[in-house]
Give the backbone structure.
Amino acid sequence: MKPVTIQRNIALLSVVLFLAKIFAWYLTGSVTVLTDALEGIVNMIAGFLGLFSIVLAAMPRDTNHPYGHGKAEFLSSAVEGTLIIVSGVVIIFDAIHHLVEPHALQKLDTALLIVAAAGGVNYLAGRYAETKGKKNNSMILVSAGKHLQTDAWSTVAIIIGLLLIILTRNRYQWLDGAVALCFACIIMITGYKVLRRSISGIMDEMDVTLLKEVIALLQSSRKPQWIDLHNLRVIQYGNLMHVDAHMTMPWYYTVNEADNEIQRLEKLIKSKFGSQVELFIHIDGCKDYQCRLCAMENCKERKTNLDQQMEWEIDNVWANAEHGKGLLH
């Protein structure tokens, strides 16, 4: 199933669950149930906004957007995180009001069944969305999946609160506001995490995990003629991954020979990360002082023997500086 279809189904499901939770709140008048319903509003907005973002992010690049539209997913997640935080603030004010002026609740057993069913559906849908999102490199699906799962676990807290109120036969009416207050804090923490991740994407914050995976792949499949690698940048926009780097090759390589190596490098990366990869590789010709790092055999232009090939790691490939100059005597 395509990401856009999954997100569309999530958006439609959020509408059904929201209506169910509103009905449960109408039956009980519980602020705890209302918090779950307000979370449903956020789910609806995020669902349809995510659907729009996936469609936009999938559009091909154009003259106005030379790097594509993938950052639309980050903007969508930023809006989603903000809405989650706002809903948490609203719930806090309502919960405090009910703590100050508690009132008796009705038909809690029916509401309990509705909320429990909605929570179960949310969890299953969230697991599915997260799995598919990771498979398709879709941040918006991963975010939506984690959000739905968090919503489901929060529903567990709401269920516990409703059970306590039922078991105490409504004698401790303040429990309704107290549970809602705790739930609001969980919501705000979730919103902060979603917002934080989206901002890091907008600011092109380095994805250390992804960068390490790329470096490990290049190191494990390294060719002797790939003498040096530096100024490596890896950025993920939606399902499109950009890889920028400077690679040092023998200075006497022809244009065609260097191009063949770039194609080999591109094929290697795509075999691991899929076809949606763009490479921008700058070729540097090797210098005399890099002979000590070069593992090429039978090189007629070698000035010094191989000392030790530098192992590519995150600490030495991201910097914009050629390696080996300090080894020159």
About this structure: The first strand starts at residue 228 and ends at 237. The CA atoms of residues 111 and 323 lie 66 Å apart.
